[in-house]
Amino acid sequence: MSNKPTLETIDITVFPNGVAELAFNRPNRYNSLTPQAYKDWLVAIQWAANEESVKVCVLTGRGKYYTSGQELTLPDPEEEDLAEKFAQRHLTTKTLVKEMIQFPKLLIGAINGHCIGFGTTTAALCDVVYSVPDATFATPFMKLGFCAEGCSSVLFPRIMGSSKANEMLLLGRRFSAKEMEECGFLRILPAEGFQEHVLKLAGQASEFSVEAMKVTKELVRGVDRDLLLKTNEIEMERLMERMGSADSFESISKFVEESRRKKAAKKKQGAL
Amino acid sequence: MSNKPTLETIDITVFPNGVAELAFNRPNRYNSLTPQAYKDWLVAIQWAANEESVKVCVLTGRGKYYTSGQELTLPDPEEEDLAEKFAQRHLTTKTLVKEMIQFPKLLIGAINGHCIGFGTTTAALCDVVYSVPDATFATPFMKLGFCAEGCSSVLFPRIMGSSKANEMLLLGRRFSAKEMEECGFLRILPAEGFQEHVLKLAGQASEFSVEAMKVTKELVRGVDRDLLLKTNEIEMERLMERMGSADSFESISKFVEESRRKKAAKKKQGAL
Amino acid sequence: MSNKPTLETIDITVFPNGVAELAFNRPNRYNSLTPQAYKDWLVAIQWAANEESVKVCVLTGRGKYYTSGQELTLPDPEEEDLAEKFAQRHLTTKTLVKEMIQFPKLLIGAINGHCIGFGTTTAALCDVVYSVPDATFATPFMKLGFCAEGCSSVLFPRIMGSSKANEMLLLGRRFSAKEMEECGFLRILPAEGFQEHVLKLAGQASEFSVEAMKVTKELVRGVDRDLLLKTNEIEMERLMERMGSADSFESISKFVEESRRKKAAKKKQGAL
After folding, report:
1. Burial of B153 (0-12, 13-18, 19+ CB in 10 A)
2. From the candidates B166, B233, B247, which should be mutated to test the interface with C, based on the most C CB atoms within 10 A?
3. Among A134, C74, C87, C139, which one is most buried in terms of CB atoms within 10 A?
4. Facing residue for C148 by CB, picked from A126, A185, A216
């Protein structure tokens, strides 16, 4: 395992049975997705896909959040190479979704806590999703003037039914883990021993014939792969347009301002 | 809002926040769908789609029924222009389904009471569906010798799973709101304050970026639009054949006769 | 009904209302699927499809199992015509799935007890599925080095959502009837009077217009038929490769050996 990457934001553990755990590891930042975090995720998933000794991959997070989603910052117009950085980040995200769609091994999402935005959409690209009981799920895309991504425009309606999918995507409603379980998105495992439980299930899967797993995963995913790859292209194009739009800039400004005010109020209250 | 249509069977209210409520408004006739009611529905939905000040559209009914579905009457062979009227009604229904498929804004179904036939099938064409707890849902197509319409042949299996979809479409089983919620078709809101609750949720959505909503709705619906449009064409062709068939005529006769007998029995009992 | 086939492993009953019940009838062998059982199933389903007096078909089993799935035996290399027999069995299975996909009448799955492998996958090809409360469902394909079949690679994710589908197909988790009901696969009916209950529901459907049923079933199934037929071809090709592979042979050997040991232990315990 000499080639196991060492990453700033993701903690990789490989167990002797061939289970690799990739864990978002910035708990004090709610595992928010900075440009670096997207890059690390891409490196980690590509490594797990290609590393022969890895049979099963578990995607999880450390702390109270799985991930709080994309870190929201207002572009500083004085920053150098702004357009280039934006394009680079866009490409990283698109490639990451593509790698998730094409991941050739069993990919288990182990939702250890709250799950926002890109964390929620990409969970639908995992083969199996487990969650702790008190996690919540949200995609506040409309509030930010964004749009659906991570193939959620296609996968959410299929998994959850159109009404619940649109409540999440178009209305931005936050779902409890229980509701996500009821609509077939995941299965809840007890909070106590959650990580061990998931790793045990992953370990059982690692004993199966690697070839049989690969063939069956290909049968399940193969029928939709082209549609998902195309959906990713279209979603990402729309998202880039949205992120560059005036109404989205305004929405983010409002959001960032609100966050600042809340933080300041909290600080003040703490000081009293 | 000078161009807001005034309709015989549908009550249109537009709120300052851009939410338009279209309400079936013949409660004493259980909001049954007469030829006029189909025409009004079509006018209302086309208006809501095109009127720029409308951001979100809520479809609901007044009284104990959302809609009891198509009003069943036996064709009177002495009536003039029977074939022409039949063809006109057919075209109106087909165009209405088409407009629902292509509706460019957020469309919320607010099921205020019992929901039969075309009311149930077209609910699946709404982006989000809410229901009062004691509504029931049924598509008694087989009893009448009809067939699936409103794209239910495609949308019901996707939303509910094939077994529940076929229980409704092929066996004509009536579903409770709770069961519809469990199979992902809708979400139940409390009966008390139902209308206000839905309008509040619609109002929250009306504050989002109109463009972001449009783009995301297009991502969700766009992938299936051609299939749904084609399904509507095929279903409507089959339905026209079915409605003109001897076995359907016989089924409707039996149904109408039964209804008459029940009504008469009720009257007699009331007189005693 | 002079042409009603008499079969070794399937019991066929035809009721005057046009309901035909096909029942797996080797309860002392848990209705396991021997080469003969596959052949009988094929004959029975083809007969039900073509026999004009049959309007509705119910598929069920006698005893504590619906079916325990394919009977596992290790190929005896000394057996004559081994390759030919293998190819014949393969063709029978593939044709059977094809007939289930194309079955032109209402097909009801009445799951009377535990349901394993091919029994579980083909249940998803029935229009409506009912189950007793204490049945369990499993597809232990990975344990045997096999792969998804019976169109489960396409139908399971659609019905159950991808996570539950993959828990079953890739992880081999056993589901309770309650969980299968919750994910939309079936509806539970009380154990007492289960058969009568299903036959009554089937009887009600047999009173509907045969033509209306046929048209609506065609609308529901027609949109997916080509995809399902193609999926069957691909799955069966992969399964044939899998069954001929060294790792699958090893998995089956282990499984058969375990079964023998368990049986011996049981016998010994009984003797003490």
Report:
1. buried
2. B166
3. C139
4. A216
Chain B residues near residue C205 by CB distance under 8 angstroms: 142, 170-171
SS3 C268: helix
Whether A209 and C247 lie within 8 Å, measured CB to CB: yes
What stretch of H or E contains A174? Answer: none
In a domain, A168, yes or no: yes
Nearest by CB to A209, which of C145, C157, C166? Answer: C145
Sheet holding C65-67, edge to edge: C65-67, C114-116, C136-138, C175-176
Contact B143 C186 (CB under 8 A): no
What's the average model confidence in pLDDT over B30-57? Answer: 97
Q: How many domains is chain A partitioned into structurally?
A: 1
Percent of chain A residues past pLDDT 90, beyond the cut: 83
Token pair for C93: 């299975």
Residues of A in contact with C251 (CB under 8 A): 209
Which residues on chain A are in Cβ contact (under 8 Å) with C160? 184
Structure tokens at B159: 């939303």
Percent of chain A residues topping a pLDDT of 70: 98
- Contacting C with CB below 8 Å, chain B residues are 141-148, 153-154, 156-158, 160-167, 169-172, 182-184, 227, 231, 234-235, 238, 241-242, 245, 247-248, 251
A159: nearest CA in chain C? C161
- Among A201, A215, A218, A225, the residue to mutate for chain C (most C Cβ within 10 A): A215
Q: Please list every residue in chain A whose beta carbon sits closer than 8 Å to the beta carbon of residue B223.
A: 153-154, 227, 231
Chain A residues whose beta carbon lies within 8 Å of the beta carbon of residue C245? 209, 211
Q: Is A2 part of a structural domain of the chain?
A: no
A165: left (phi over 0), alpha (psi -120 to 50) or beta: alpha
Note down the domain range covering A93.
Answer: 10-271
Q: Which residue has the higher pLDDT, C249 or B126?
A: B126
How many angstroms separate the CA atoms of A203 and C246, rounded? 22
Could you write out the DSSP letters of every residue in C47-85? HHHH-TT--EEEEEESSSEEE--BPP----TTSTTHHHH
Q: Does residue C2 have a pLDDT over 60?
A: no
**Is residue C247 in a domain?**
yes
Work out the minimum CA distance from A184 to partner chain C, whole angstroms.
Answer: 5
Tens of pLDDT, residue by residue over C62-108, are 999 999 999 987 767 777 788 888 899 999 999 999 999 999 999 99
- Asked if pLDDT for residue C1 goes beyond 70, the answer is no
Of A182, A209, A215, the CB nearest to C251: A209
Angle between helices C162-169 and A152-160 (to 10 degrees): 70
Q: Shortest CB distance from C245 goes to which of A106, A186, A211?
A: A211
Does the pLDDT value for residue A2 go beyond 70? no
Question: Over the stretch B147-205, which tens digit does the pLDDT of each residue have?
Answer: 999 999 999 999 999 999 999 999 999 999 999 999 999 999 999 999 999 999 999 99
Asked if residue C192 has pLDDT above 70, the reply is: yes
Taking contacts as CB-CB distances below 8 angstroms, the residues of chain A near C166 are 106, 127-128, 217, 220
Q: What is the CATH number of the domain that holds C201?
A: 3.90.226.10
Q: Nearest residue of B to residue A154 by CA position?
A: B220
* Count of other CB atoms within 10 angstroms of residue A82: 12
**C143, A181, A170: which is closest to B55 by C-alpha?**
A170
pLDDT of residue A136: 98
Residue C172 lies in a domain: yes
pLDDT in tens, A216-245: 999 999 999 999 999 999 999 999 999 989
* Cβ atoms of residues A61 and A113 within 8 Å: yes
Instruction: Give me chain B's average pLDDT, please.
Output: 94
* ipTM for the complex shown: 0.94
**pLDDT by residue (tens digit) across B224-256?**
999 999 999 999 999 999 998 998 888 888 888
